[in-house]
Amino acid sequence: MTELPSYLPIELETTTFDLIVVGTGIPESVIAAAASATGKTVLHLDPNQFYGSHSASIHLNDLTSFLNYHANLPSTTAANTTSASSNHDFTALNLSLRSLYSNVETANYAPETLAQHSTKFSVDLGGPRVFLCADKATDLLIKSGINAYLDFKGIEASFIWDGSGRLCDVPDSRSAIFKDKSLSLLEKNQLMRFFKLVKRHLGASNGDDEGRESSKISEEDLESPFVEFLKKMRLPPKIKSIILYAICMVDYDQDNLEVCKSVLKTRDGMERLALYQNSIGRYGASGALLYPTYGIGELSQAFCRRAAVKGCIYVLRMPVTALLMDQNSGQYKGVRLASGEDFFSHQLVLDPTFIVPLPPASSPPDLRESFQVLSLKDDKRKVARGICIINSSLKPDISQFLLIYPPRSLFPEQDTSIRALQIGGDLDQMAVCPSGMFVLYFSGLCDDAGQGKRLLHAAMNALLTLPVSESGSAAGSEDAEVKPTLLWSMLYIQELTTVPTGQYENIISTPMLDGNINFSDLIESTMVLFQKMYPDEVFFPETPSSPEVPENSEDDTELSLEN
User: Fold this and answer.
1) Which residues contact 106 (CB under 8 A, 6 or more apart)?
2) Where are the beta strands (DSSP E) in 28-150?
3) What is the four-CA torsion angle of 437, 48, 523, 259, rounded to 10 degrees?
4) What is the pLDDT of residues 218-247, one digit of tens each?
5) Is the dihedral of CA 213, 215, 216, 220 positive or negative?
6) DSSP per-residue letters across 348-401
7) CA-based, 20 to 30 A from 163: which of 242, 291, 314, 480?
């Protein structure tokens, strides 16, 4: 690490807290807010000048600086040094940082235009990502009262790439099926019958009057691969692809089960279908998916506001440089800040950038073993992410929409889905980019940077006019003249980390954003961490609800999440 600049002391009235949290990403902010809600004293720190950490929504210049800094951290860190204080009974173990981003690739084809509007962009570092109206993340916003700090817009449509250059509608409801002009009458009937079968099965499973016991899908079928069940239902490939990749949001190619890295069972497929169906129309005319005004970084800020109301103290631009460990027992005591101040707590939460050092050799052997399993484990997979700024919408009359590239729809070796999300068009409406421009996010799981970059470039070439392209068009796509022009792009590879099963009792490391399109798994893993820290506390007590949103509301300009 480069030498830290000087930092002024924060000079708080107390130096001891129940909990210290480092990083203001979604997991850290949720834990801070949940702990504050139970009456815990919390000090929340972040070395950045903005909220959100790895889930921030920031200006272009901040985005570039953040990624380049983290991508260029030393791949190997020097051995951690220790220093004992003569006036205190603790030892300081220096913290080091791990690189979670690599292969950052930036292209700017309109530097003057973008320079004029750089501060009007609020770009998601962890996109594309949306809320399903009925998922656990959305329910948590309501339960915790966080929805009072957020505004949402409905994602207007979902499309699936058909492999020949067309964006086909995703018929995810009865009305959408009838309106879809790309489906034949036979296909519409097949899809309607399948959705009815799913509804009857779910009704029977839940004990509803609409479902009879005989309507349940057999246990044998529920434990079978979902793709095999869809074949058993005699659904054509087009319908299967829509169900698997655009509604159930499956990551990997399900047609080759022998090499598939994650096979979706029918039971899980039914749960995903139920979640999607329950999300449709839950908040007026917003469809199944929501996106927060100003970007997903607002989620972290909303939880931080909730925590601040309950007494949490916030300090930005303040790096943590060392852990303070008891000289005799080796137990965690506190942290040392870049200002030179020492603060103490019973519990510590660190964002995944930090490498937790081993305690001194004099510490008990069982304590050293606990720290060895504490550092986050690398997931062998990675997430390839791309951010593009374009001069017009991919669909002339639609500003906000989700696009799915199923496996093998771009090239034969493509074994994973690619997801794209377009946001923007009107600065006053979405507040993520200047009016007349759009932000297009891409993501896909990959095994290495080479595979990830190939996925991103293939998806971009299929949709956009690239100024550096010699031919000006991508094979199998529409004419270049009607395709939006790329103004700016940033492609990068993000590491995936998972929380180890053996957590040291006083220090918790949070996971990175995963490769999902929604927040459900991230929120669920954060809930598990909180419950491990505070098994006797309630994870956000219920808050009074507000009046319900009218079911038939046609005003979709501002959606508030209300019970």
Assistant:
1) 64, 488, 489, 490
2) 42-45, 57-58, 82-84, 90-94, 96-97, 101-108, 123-124, 131-132
3) 70
4) 999 999 999 999 999 999 999 999 999 999
5) positive
6) EEE-TTEEPPPPPTTS-HHHHHHHHTTSPEEEEEEEEEEEEEESS-SBTTBSSE
7) 291
With b for 16 or more beta-carbon neighbours within 10 A and e for fewer, the 142-157 pattern comes to bbbbbbbbbebbbbbb
Pair of tokens at residue 450: 């080479």
pLDDT tens-digit series, residues 401-422: 999 999 999 999 999 999 999 9
Residue for token pair 């190939």:
454
User: What does the DSSP assignment read for 36-57?
Assistant: HHTT--EEEE-SSSSS-GGG-E
The pTM assigned to this predicted structure is 0.89
Q: How far is Cα 221 from Cα 200, in angstroms, rounded to an integer?
A: 15
Residue 358 to residue 555: CA distance in whole angstroms: 56
In whole angstroms, give the CA distance from residue 249 to residue 276. Answer: 10
CA atoms within 13 A on the CB side of 316: 10
Q: Which of 82-91, 177-186, 323-332, 524-533 has the lowest mean pLDDT?
A: 82-91
**Tokens of residue 257, six digits:** 């089960």
Distance of CA 51 to the CA centre of its chain: 15
Whether residue 330 contacts residue 321, with contact meaning beta carbons closer than 8 Å, is answered with no
More confident residue, 73 or 341: 341
Calculate the average pLDDT of the chain: 85
Which pLDDT tens digit goes with each residue over 136-182? Answer: 999 999 999 999 999 999 999 999 998 888 899 998 888 888 888 88
According to DSSP, the residues that pair with 416 across neighbouring strands are 252
Separation of alpha carbons 23 and 100, rounded Å: 14
Distance CA 254, CA 94 (A): 46
> Token match 């509007």: residue?
117
Between the alpha carbon of residue 181 and those of residues 184, 237, 394, the distances in Å are 8, 17, 19
